[in-house]
Design goal:
The protein has about 300 residues and is mainly β. It is built from one helix and 23 strands. The strands form six sheets. It has a six-stranded antiparallel β-sheet with strand order 1-14-5-10-11-12, with no helix packed on it.
Length: about 300
């Protein structure tokens, strides 16, 4: 079972409480970014993946404000890590490699010479990485489209079902986050899709929210493809879809589940089921791979179905 986590920059979409979402249209291409300061937490996976790809944005200032980032798989023993990290400490910056409980620092770049790691200061930087498991495993990291680190290790994911997404503080808040066990194109990015129409059997509240009172009620929304083509071009490739409920919360224990829906013009398909949190600021998200050109998205609708929790 493959997974794809597509996150514009919301801490609430992780499987851990305590993160913070920040609205920022200057230091984030999506308008939001987040940090998550609880170590060894992030996303709970249904299965251990065979490989791990990741991509995210982070604004790096020309200052001495420190932060650290970890994106890695954590084994069930609670300490064996496999993945990558990035550290900004005083006037230095470097990537970290984590492999089978070991760690090592990569090439060091000083604030005075960020080009050593193809970094750019006082702007948004894009990192892409791939962690391949097995006896011929390796960790490869790209900075702003250029390969800056690649080291070979025998990597054993074993029973790793926790995908750590750790950002120490607001200085290193990330956005445009994509994590998957299938290849992520280095040009892939998160775009928040504009909505043109909404079809629902739910009740619309005074604040524009949709309220489900019985199991089986649905909401399906059509994407404004014309607007997207104007912004990105008709040749744009769609690589995945994340259906996000924001806000999404339950007011009772019975009717507490939301199942992601996709209608391709002919067939209605159900994807993952999420439990809506009790907090009124809660969110839910379910993502999956989807491959097509942008104009084909006009036939699709996406949404949720309410259900009873187990």
């Amino acid at each position: 079972m493959s997974f794809k986590h597509i996150n514009p920059g919301y801490a609430e979409l992780l499987d851990v409480a305590g993160g913070t979402t920040i609205v920022d249209t200057v230091k984030s291409k999506t308008g939001v970014k987040f940090y998550q300061p609880t170590d060894k937490k992030g996303l709970a996976l249904a299965e251990t993946p065979a490989t791990l790809y990741g991509k995210f944005d982070v604004y790096i200032g020309n200052d001495y404000n420190n932060f650290s980032i970890k994106m890695l798989l954590l084994r069930s023993n609670g300490y064996t890590e496999n993945g990558m990290g990035f550290v900004k400490s005083s006037n230095t910056m470097y990537f970290m490699r984590y492999y089978n409980g070991n760690s090592s620092m990569g090439t060091k770049a000083y604030i005075s010479s960020p080009e050593v790691l193809n970094l750019k200061l006082d702007t948004i930087n894009t990192f892409w990485f791939h962690v391949a498991s097995g006896s011929e495993g390796y960790i490869e990291i790209y900075s702003n489209g250029v390969s800056v680190e690649k080291y070979s290790y025998a990597i054993d994911f074993a029973t790793s079902k926790t995908l750590v997404v750790y950002i120490s503080n607001t200085n290193g808040a990330v956005s445009n986050l994509i994590l998957s066990d299938t290849e992520i194109d280095k040009k892939e990015q998160v775009a928040i899709l504009p909505i043109s129409t909404t079809e629902t059997t739910m009740t619309q509240g005074e604040n524009g929210e949709y309220i489900a009172g019985t199991a089986g009620q649905t909401i399906l929304q059509t994407v404004n493809v014309a607007s997207l083509i104007n912004d990105y071009g008709a040749d744009t490739e769609i690589k995945g879809i994340a259906v996000i409920g924001n806000p999404a919360y339950r007011t009772a224990e019975g009717l507490s589940n939301l199942t992601a829906l996709q209608h391709d013009g002919t067939t209605l398909t159900e994807y993952g089921t999420r439990t809506a949190p009790s907090s009124t600021s809660g969110m839910v998200m379910d993502g999956h791979a989807l491959s097509m050109k942008l104009p084909a998205l006009a036939d699709y609708k996406f949404g949720w179905k309410a259900g009873v929790g187990s």
